Structures are given as structure tokens and as C-alpha cells.
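Progress against Task 2.4 (sequence-to-structure conversion) is shown through the following example record, which the project officer requested during the mid-term review.
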Amino acid sequence: MPGEISTAGMRSGHSSQPAMRASHADRDRVVDLLSVAAGEGRLTSEELDQRLEAALSARTVGELAELTTDLPPMPVFAGGVAAEAKDVLRIEQSFSPVERVGRWVVPRRLELCVQWCEVTLDFTQAAITHDTLQLDVNMQGKNLTLVVGPGIVVDTDGLSLVFGKLKDHQAPDPDAPIALRVELVGQKSFGRVVVRQPRRTAGRWLLRRPAALPPGD
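C-alpha cells generated for the chain above:
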């Protein structure tokens, strides 16, 4: 199928010419695949950083293919990633942190059954294929952090807090269309639920600083 990523992470036909020079588009496709794999828990943060660095410096398609041979294929179409969302994704975990960051695919329903785990769900670069996510929470201890961007709204009305706190730092734009509504239901005991915007980089902080006044003013 045209445009389909093979298990090597390259477009069909490229894998037979490993010495061919890689293009910027080839590198971008592999970066997307690695980000999705990390969001699904297939790569650790350290592995992701190592492979991203190698992908961005790769000179040939063969070098890129080596970075994705142990990952499942992902279809790519013009204009970005097209990945099929799961109807239900269930996460059961204890003590180890749970992260969904980067280019991960948002399911239709996410069942979060964890104990004493820090959980971070970052929607700012996620692949959103529908307008509503039901987030079923059965969580004890630690914090649940939801990172949102423009067009992403979190509804916490259906969530019960037991010895827990909610810190909602959403700043929705009333004129922006809603791309995703995250509906929290269930129970969170102990710890906090934090809804926040992405952290500003150093460059953004510098842009916010007022310009220095000239001497004598």
C-alpha cells in the first residue's frame, strides 16, 4: 500500500536500498514512529532520546531502519500520522510511573487502574482521532497530571476525590473549537489531580520579559 511504513519504519521500497541517502521526510517519519512507540510504552525515555538523536543524524535509510526493526509498523499519509485509535485501553500498574507523552494515539476510552504511580498524560502532541475521551480512574496515591493545549478541555465533574485535591489550571480559549473533551469519571484517592498547560521553555520566558529601558529613562 502506498505510504505504508514497513517494520523498518521506512516507506515500502526503501528498505531494499539501505545505502540510499535519507531525506528530511524519511527522518521525520521515523521520529513520528519512535514517538508513538514511546507513548505506547514500548520505549523508555532514555531509549527514545538515544534513538531520536540517532534518527536526526542518520545519513542513510539503512541507518534509520535499524532504529525501528523491533517496533510495529504504522501507516502514514500526507499531512501527518494516521493511526487507528483503540476502543479501550486499560492500564494496570503499581509503583512504577505511567507516561503517555509525545505522539501517542488517544483511545476512545482509557481505563486507569493504578496504585502509587505517578501518571502523566500529555495531550499536546497526541494523535486525536475523535472528539471525546472517557477516562475511567481507579487510582490510589501519587498524582495524576493532564497536560492540555488549545482545543483540549478536561471535565472533572464525574470524578470523586477521597483525601485528594484538584488543581485545575486550564485556560481555554472560548473562541477556539474543541478538538478533544476528556471526561474524568471514577475515583481518585490520596494525591492530586493536576490539569495544566505545557511548561514554558526558557525561550518563551525570555520573550515574556519586558524590554530593558534605555539608560536615563
